[in-house]
Amino acid sequence: MPRPTEHEVLAAVLQIRDDTLQVLAWQRAQPPDSGRWALPGGRLGDDEDVERSVVRQLAEKVDLREVTHVEQIAVFSDPDRVPGARRIATAFLGLVPADADPAVPADTAWHPLTALPATAFDHAAIIDAARDRLRAKLSYTNLGFALAPRAFTISALRELYVAALGHPVSATNLQRVLTRRHVLEPTGDLAPPGPAGGRPAALFRFTERTLRVTDASAVLRPPGEPDRGAVP
Amino acid sequence: MPRPTEHEVLAAVLQIRDDTLQVLAWQRAQPPDSGRWALPGGRLGDDEDVERSVVRQLAEKVDLREVTHVEQIAVFSDPDRVPGARRIATAFLGLVPADADPAVPADTAWHPLTALPATAFDHAAIIDAARDRLRAKLSYTNLGFALAPRAFTISALRELYVAALGHPVSATNLQRVLTRRHVLEPTGDLAPPGPAGGRPAALFRFTERTLRVTDASAVLRPPGEPDRGAVP
DNA sequence: ACAAAAGTGTTATTCCTACACCCATGC
DNA sequence: GCATGGGTGTAGGAATAACACTTTTGT
Q1: What local confidence, expressed as pLDDT, does residue B231 receive?
Q2: CB of B154 under 7 A from strand C?
Q3: What is the arithmetic mean of pLDDT over A25-51?
Q4: For strand A86-95 and strand A5-17, is the pairing parallel, antiparallel, or unpaired?
Q5: CA dihedral A70, A75, A79, A80 (to 10 degrees)
Q6: CB contact under 8 A, A219 and B86
Q7: Residue A95 near residue A14, CB atoms below 8 Å
Q8: pLDDT value at position A3?
Q9: For A74-93, what is each residue's pLDDT tens digit?
Q10: A72 contacts: CB under 8 Å, gap ≥ 6
């Protein structure tokens, strides 16, 4: 007779706010882990799969139109990961563009990943896994579209990459690499200069807003094909 | 009152046999999907997480010492993915070296991915996802260690890569790329030539037998650092 | 000697980093 | 004019694909 088991979904929703990678969490008011911060999510419904479920549950915390990308990270299934009845979690990474400022419930707030408050259960491990996934995919896919506004200057994009990756990025090379791979294209418009002057910056956009692998790792690709990521 | 739900684990165990990528499956004797081929796996036990569970269940089908790598692929959770009580599956990729020939139960057999018989439930999608994961990781990690014998010639390794990737691979460049990245090293021994003669081939081994990223995608790495995959 | 298989040398290309230099605006 | 920020040109270097050539064996 198996122990009763629930299935939940949890989302580490990441956004770059104030040049820092932050995660959305809500503060638990009830035990267990009262006062600690938890990821949004909840029980899987009877008539939905985990992808639909996480989208539905996020709708209660943030405006859905602002979540530009959602993907499965992993299953967290330690029998003792939460006290009481067994609960298995499918963890997701969610991304929100830097220019969005979704209204969130009163018990909910953004926290920099570098200064996380006490987290509930195993949610810190989920956040780490989500951050690692984001960093990896920023480098070999066009996933930046999910962090950036619809239009942006190269230096704004550079700051997003620096915040997400945690290491310096050259604006010069960022622009050239991403345009060569047809990930970025100029909109034709210019951004006004700041108060101190300076040349007005050109605005760019991502050519696609769905995930695509752009750097199909050089080593073992079929012979005779260039490296560009499948240009249609 | 939520619908009762079980959690199962399923493994797409892949091996290269006869220069072809094959998957281990067993033929169902009972409905539903009687006669169709299913992936090994089963219900998650009360005192184990999904990783331990898949290892335990594989022990019933193949000798565990032969499974050199296991990793989570994704959760499959469509409410109607199997008839009857709801069942959520965590899918895994498992790999067995080409020189192993594990004893398997009578209802169990290997099948080339290119000529799969009728599969049960959504298992074909799981097999596809596992194959895609294998192909991707072969290119940017040292995952080849899990497909290859402990020692091998470069041309044997080349055939493994061809079978797994499905496109031609140059033995010359394969050797140079993998040794430059310190993924491969010579054992110092030689393999005897075949019946038709020919120069005896040097034997190589993988320097590590745990997963490591060897090509940390060039674009956005920190400045001033070479591309080698974190050589210890 | 000749065929077969393995391995090395070499060249051309592609892609990237780094850095110097030029451009456009506010004050 | 000059400070400030944006963008381009270009040289050097690293990694790889392609292919010719050499080495070592069996018959």
Answers
A1: 41
A2: yes
A3: 96
A4: parallel
A5: -40
A6: no
A7: yes
A8: 79
A9: 999 999 999 999 999 999 99
A10: A50, A51, A90, A91, A92, B74, B75
Task: Give the integer Cα–Cα distance in Å for A157 and A169.
Answer: 10
**B170–A223 CB contact, under 8 Å:** yes
Place of tokens 């047809």: A182
Separation in Å, CA of B195 to nearest CA in chain A: 31
The answer to whether residues B21 and B112 touch, using CB atoms and an 8 Å cutoff, is yes
How many distinct helices (H) and strands (E) make up chain A? 4, 9
How far, in Å, CA of A111 to CA of A36, rounded? 13
Q: What is the mean pLDDT of each run of 10 residues along chain B (232 residues)?
A: 86 96 96 95 95 94 86 97 95 97 92 96 98 92 96 96 92 92 92 82 95 72 53 38
- Amino acid type, B99: D
User: Coil, helix or strand for A55?
Assistant: helix
Given CB atoms, is A7 within the 8 Å cutoff of chain B? yes
Chains A, B: CB contacts under 8 A, how many?
Answer: 107
User: Is the distance from CB of A39 to CB of A25 less than 8 angstroms?
Assistant: yes
Amino acid at B145: F
Q: Please, are residues B151 and B187 in contact by the beta-carbon 8 Å criterion?
A: yes
Residue A124 neighbours by CB under 8 Å, 6+ apart: A116
- How far, CA to CA in Å, does B155 sit from each of B125, B173, B200? 32, 11, 11
Rounded to two decimals, what is the model's pTM? Answer: 0.92
Task: Say yes or no: Cβ of A227 under 7 A from any atom of strand C.
Answer: yes
CB atoms within 10 A of CB B50: 23
List where CATH 1.10.10.10 sits in chain A: 141-206
C-alpha distances in angstroms, A157 versus A16, A22, A28, A142? 11, 17, 35, 12
* Residue B224 sits at the chain A interface (C-beta within 8 Å): no
> Which residue among B77, B78, B167 places its CB closest to the CB of A222?
B167
CATH number of A5-124: 3.90.79.10
Check CB contact under 8 Å for A219 and B177. Answer: yes
Tokens of residue A42, six digits:
């909840």
Distance from CA of B26 to the nearest CA of A (A): 25
Please give the CATH architecture assigned to the domain spanning A141-206.
Orthogonal Bundle (1.10)
Chain B 83-142, residues with CB within 8 Å of chain A CB atoms:
86, 88, 90, 136, 138-140
**Nearest residue of A to residue B175, measured between CA atoms:** A219
Residue A231's pLDDT is 39
